[in-house]
Amino acid sequence: MTFKQVVPSLFTAAAMLAGFSSMLASAEGEFVLAAQLILVSMILDGIDGTLARLLRATTKFGAELDTYVDMTSFGLAPAFLLYELILKNEGILGLMMVSAIVLSGVIRLSRFRVVDPFRGQHGYLGLPITTAAGWITAFVIATQNAPVDQIWLSLDHGPVATLFWISTLAMILLQVSLVRYSKPTKNPLVFVPFTVSLILLFFNGPLAIGSALMMAAYGFWFAFVSPFFRRQHLVLAPADEDEDEEHPVTLHHS
User: Fold this and answer.
1) How many domains does the chain have?
2) Torsion sign over Cα 190, 196, 201, 206
3) Quick check: 35 and 74 in contact, CB under 8 A?
4) Using alpha carbons only, how large is the chain's radius of gyration in Å?
5) Under a CB-based contact definition with an 8 Å cutoff, are residues 248 and 116 in contact?
6) Beta carbons of 73 and 44 less than 8 angstroms apart
7) Which domain CATH number covers 170?
8) Could you tell me which of 235, 232, 230 has the C-alpha nearest to residue 189?
9) How far apart are CA 219 and CA 153, in angstroms?
10) Which residues pair with 124 in a beta bridge?
11) Does the pLDDT of residue 117 top 60, yes or no?
């Protein structure tokens, strides 16, 4: 392995450690920190692929390593965060929910490795696992930063909790569905505001709450609305018309 190939893998390894550290933070009851570490892993996971392409240092090893990072940081860590925060008090229903999150992530990533030779560059079959992970972390940050008098902003009761849990269940079902999603674009009109909102999630108070709710709104739009506009909407990159037979879309139409 050359030096150029090692550099992206170092970022991938750092993303893995951030995901593992998130689980340690959840176990200690540091739920905001746990959510923030998932976001750190998400950022590092985006950097490693970009670096690999810029350095022309993509490898099969890096692609395999990235899959394990995705499972740790965006499958196990969010599930463990929700379990420690709320679900461990919900008996068998809580155990079933957290198990569904984990199993959906495993199936999603296993199928991704098998049916997508483009590694998501031409779009996705099923909702990307990072969407549900971002949705969960956004709500955890928002609710944990909410003042005591804002009891409506909670994950264990009220309309916000109902929206959160129904949408989370729908997202983990969409992860293993045949719904086609386009790859989000890096258009500055979208990427820059999204990056700023992401940074604000590492602060406390109203800024974090507002940014978290904006991030959750984007996740909701991407999961439930964007498939209907995947070729026309600004934030989605158009898919190629001449996709070959190995592309996941062939499974979608079979």
Assistant:
1) 1
2) negative
3) no
4) 18
5) yes
6) no
7) 1.20.120
8) 235
9) 18
10) 181
11) no
The kind and range of the H/E element at 118 are none
Most confident of 30-44, 201-215, 218-232: 30-44
Q: What letter represents residue 128's amino acid?
A: P
Residues forming beta bridges with residue 236, ordered by sequence position? 184
Phi-psi region of 56 (alpha: psi -120 to 50; beta: other; left: phi over 0): left
Token code pair at residue 46: 């985006």
Alpha-carbon distance of 40 to 53, in angstroms, equals 20
- Return the DSSP state at 181: E
pLDDT for residue 53 is more than 60 = yes
Domain that holds residue 118: 3-252
Kindly report the average pLDDT of the chain as a whole number. Answer: 81
Residue 253 DSSP code: T
pLDDT at 248 over 60: no
- Looking at residue 78, the DSSP 8-state letter turns out to be H
Cβ atoms of residues 49 and 12 within 8 Å? no
Q: What is the pLDDT of residues 162-200, one digit of tens each?
A: 999 999 999 999 999 988 888 766 556 666 777 788 888
Partners of residue 125 on adjacent β-strands: 180
- 31, 34, 35, 41: CA torsion to nearest 10: 180
Task: Give the model's pLDDT for residue 96.
Answer: 95
